[in-house]
Amino acid sequence: MRLIARAPVVPKRRSALLRQEAIAFYLFASPWLVGLLLLTLGPIIASFVLSFTDYPVIVAPRWIGLRNYEKMLFDDELVWQALKVTLTYCIGAIPLRITVAFLVALFLNLPIRGVTLYRTIYYLPAVISGVPVALLWMWILNPEFGVLNNFLRVLGIEGPAWLFSEQWVIPSFILMSLWDIGGLMVIYLAGLQGIPAHLYEAAEIDGAGLLARFWHVTVPMMSPVIFFNIVMSVIESFQIFTPAFVMTNGGPANASLFFVLYLYNNAFKWFKMGYASALAWLLFFIILGLTLVIIRSSSAWVYYEGKLRG
Amino acid sequence: MIQPWDGGEEQAQRARARVSAEVESFSRRRHVEVAIIPTLWSAVAVCSGDGACSLDCSSGLRSCARPYAHPGPASGCSSSPSAHGHAHGCPKAGGRSLANAGCSEAPQPAVGAPVPALLRSGAGEEEFFNKVLDLFEQKHPNIKVNRVFAPGGQDYITKLDLMIASGDPPAIYGPFSDRGYRYYAAKGLSQELDDFVARDKVNLDDFHQDGLKGCRWRGKLMALPLDLWPHVIFYNRHIFREAGVADLPTDWNNQEWTTERYEELAGKLTKREGNRVVQFGSDVYFRGWPAGWVYGGDWFPPDTYTTGIVAEFIGDKDPRVINGVQWTADLINKLHYAPTPAQAQQIQAGVPVLFMSGKIGMGVADIGRLSRYAKIKEFEWGVGVLPRPPKGEPRRHHVWIDYWSMIKGTKNLEGAWQLLKFMVSPEAQEIYPIQYGPLSSLKSLASTWSKYHAKNLPNLSSKEFQVITDAPQYQVIDPENWTVNFSVINAQVMQPALDKVYLGQESAEQAIKNMAPKVRKVIEETKNV
Fold first, then answer.
1. A145 and B346: CB-CB below 8 Å?
2. Rounded-to-integer distance, Cα A262 and Cα B472, Å
3. Which of A128, B102, B310, B415 is most buried per CB count within 10 Å?
């Protein structure tokens, strides 16, 4: 027997209702849609077109084809310096932030007295905006009288010149990145509190110790959260700008010339808007590539409770 | 037709506004550049993208209509006020050219669109600019000035560029350091002033002549100097007395006062406790590119400052440049007479400027510091001349000069010119710059400056005042203001390379040798403007 598929018959009234619902949806979503089209999508398209032009802003853009990309990839040492600086920072800061935030969240998940106060204290730095934090760290890291070097002196160690040293400026920023782990920590904490207690009880009955419970229950159950935090940290870290802009302006000797700072200098200091747009697209593809790699790798290490493995 | 001189000013203004709005709207729709004649409202110039303009225009009271060729952004549809009148314009900026054209026959009252002026608000300047503009508006009730303020330095440049890009450029502007007006002149955005100056018989002889040289771009007068910020040495008399040394020389022609003597003196003024320096004999004596001038050398050949374009780098071939940079770095790293950036941050804690900490014997600074130093109560201070380079080399110090320029194609060109002319006049300069601090660009006001500041700075002798007022004669304009492409070369290559010298990681010779090919590469990329 042949079965003929039929479109489900929708009653007329229901169809009107659906239409009304759709209209309401678009109406409510319209502020966001307008914002997306005008303030995000428009500039994205404009920057893509401008990346093929020489555009000093005060005169009309001039089409130069792929010359910006050619220069960027083969003829501008500072692009590679900026990438090197940013990559070094990311390699140092991302694992450190991910790990420290996780450990702090584990600590703040313990049933100790005053834990909510501790949580607030740890989260507090995350709500302070970038510039005051940068200024504060300039004082902390001053080699002569900064808190950090004074502390090291107590231990009998003569601290480095931190922001004033080519070798130590990136480690300084990496250290400073621990300041605002509050955001990551809160996400971890939410994840930790979502792990069912019966899993720990079952593991305990099976004779699992503290470390085994952590490794075989906590880590797998937290892997989607770790995955999310890694993706967000990669995106954030590649776009680091404020501390370098305020504290070192890329110095000394370009040792802290982060990619976005170099992009900013091209766009708003030297008004090479076409070239800056090309740089922005390069950064976009780097971040996109890395994010895709992380997403692809997730099947090997991220555990999704509801997912069926084939 | 309504004419302002017929007493129908209000009606005329309304009509102008209406026509202006219509023309603007038409301009946007058709993607053309449109010029309006504020008085003879029927005449409109429509300049198409290919440069052909169908009608000329004027914002003056007299006008003519003639076909003209639109020469494009580099040269503009300019014409002289004496020959053709004073106001013209295809007043569209941003995405397209700011070309203009025009004609009329005689100086006319500037009636028309408000004159937008981009002014600096940094460090209390706003108050003085406002006083000048209040006075201007009193004297020119028919010209309304739209005052737009932006902080100085990079923020000012950003604001200016974005105003131009948005199609609403200021009529007059005065970029300070980082990038001079020549950058805009090179892109065809500056209004030529020769004919205005000739028409109104502005006495150019009274201006600081070196400053005036910088006002010319490709032979045309494109700006006028407003104020001068020469460099002098400020010193702490208390530290000098304690060290038992004489006050600094006050004669710019003193042959004995050289960088070698400066170094000796800095050594005497430096105080140590164990290994720690607790009082520095000297502040950082120029850092970065100005250090290359300290021994009388230069990074670039002399014609750079005439052409306004850095086209060649000779710093690596001039031992005076290398030695000058090395000496300024040695004061910090080898002799420890001047603080490292970290030490400076420590000493400066709590005071706005390092010298005010009272732990610095002497330091070079521009005279913009005077207003701050006038507030020092803790110690007495004085002013001396900069030392000469060693081995009888000629002096090479720099003076910052503020140039004010007009954007080509501004809607009320005559109004803009009247404002610019007023700002550089003795009457206005007695308010800004004199009351604010820097020297006037007019030679005739040198004594006025001294008289005014004698009240606020009773610690300075007449000889010390003369050090300041004479200083511009011995100093030249910096390349940032004088050239189109220096700031990019400096920021991208020179400064990062020189950082290594000041960190003590490389010798000046090594750093300058390393930077040379990179500087030459950036020059190649930027010299064709």
1. yes
2. 36
3. B102
